[in-house]
Write a structure and sequence with these properties.
The chain is of the alpha+beta class. The protein contains 7 helices and 12 strands. The strands form 3 sheets. The chain has a 4-stranded antiparallel β-sheet with strand order 1-8-3-6. The longest helix is centred in the middle third of the chain and has 27 residues.
Length: 224
C-alpha cells in the first residue's frame, strides 16, 4: 500500500502548477475509474481519499490487489507503456481527483523534465512498495499485517481523535468490508474476526456502533 503522503506538499505543487492543471473533480465511493483490460484513456492523481485496485483471473477469482491513498498517481504505468490496465480502479471513499487524458499526460512527460523526474520516482516507489508488500504477506504474522493496516488508516483518514490523559486515541470506520480486508491481508474473513476479537480483548482496540477506537495508534506500526 504505497504511501506518498509524507511529501505531499511538494508533490501537490508539482501536479497543480500552471501547465499541469488537469480536470479536478470529486468522486463518490464505488465509482469505477477504469477497468482491467481497458485501453488507458486517463491518468488520475489522488488529492484526497482512497481507491482500491482489484484484479480478476480467467477462473473467475477476484482479488483486492492494493490500496491507493492521497498522493498516488493511478493509471500512469499503463498510459506510458500504452498497454491495457492490469487492474480495475474503484473509489472506496469520497475522492478528490485530478484527471488528465493519457495523451495530455504523455505530452507533459515529454516536455516537462521536472514532472518526468517526479513520475519516475513515484513509479519506482511503487515497485519498492510491491516488494515490501510481498515480503510482509510471506513473512509477517497476520496480526502484524492487520495492525499495520489499522495504523495506515489512522494516518490517512481525516482527524477524528481525542486525547485522554496525554494519550491520543483514534476513532475510525473501516472503509472496506470485512471480506475485502481479509483478501488484502491474505487471510480468511473468519480469521480476521478472530484477530479483531483478540485485539479488543487485549484492549488494543474497542468497537462501538461500527466505529473502531484505537487507544495508541503508534503502537500498531511495524517497520516494513
Amino acid at each position: 500500500m504505497t504511501d506518498f503522503s509524507h511529501d505531499s506538499d511538494t508533490r501537490g505543487f508539482e501536479f497543480n502548477r500552471v501547465g499541469l492543471v488537469g480536470d479536478a473533480h470529486i468522486y463518490p465511493p464505488t465509482v469505477e475509474l477504469f477497468s482491467q483490460g481497458a485501453h488507458p484513456a486517463d491518468v488520475y492523481f489522488i488529492q484526497s481519499g482512497i481507491m482500491k485496485l482489484t484484479r480478476s483471473e480467467d477462473n473467475g477469482q477476484e482479488i483486492l490487489l492494493d490500496l491507493r491513498f492521497a498522493g498516488s498517481l493511478v493509471g500512469s504505468a499503463a498510459a506510458i507503456r500504452q498497454k491495457p490496465h492490469p487492474f480495475t480502479a474503484i473509489t472506496i471513499t469520497r475522492c478528490a481527483l485530478t484527471r488528465w487524458s493519457s495523451g495530455k499526460f504523455l505530452s507533459l512527460l515529454a516536455t516537462d523534465v521536472a514532472l518526468a523526474a517526479r513520475v519516475r520516482e513515484i513509479l519506482s516507489d511503487e515497485v519498492l512498495d510491491h516488494v515490501s508488500r510481498i515480503s510482509q504477506l510471506s513473512c509477517l504474522p497476520a496480526r502484524q499485517r492487520l495492525e499495520q493496516l489499522l495504523w495506515q488508516f489512522c494516518e490517512r483518514f481525516p482527524p477524528n481523535h481525542n486525547s485522554t490523559r496525554g494519550e491520543t486515541r483514534s476513532r475510525l470506520q473501516l472503509p472496506l468490508k470485512h471480506y475485502e480486508i481479509a483478501h488484502l491481508l491474505s487471510i480468511t474473513p473468519t480469521y480476521l474476526c478472530r484477530l479483531l476479537n483478540a485485539l479488543e480483548k487485549e484492549n488494543v482496540i474497542s468497537r462501538s456502533k461500527g466505529w473502531i477506537i484505537i487507544s495508541k495508534p503508534s503502537e500498531l506500526w511495524h517497520a516494513p
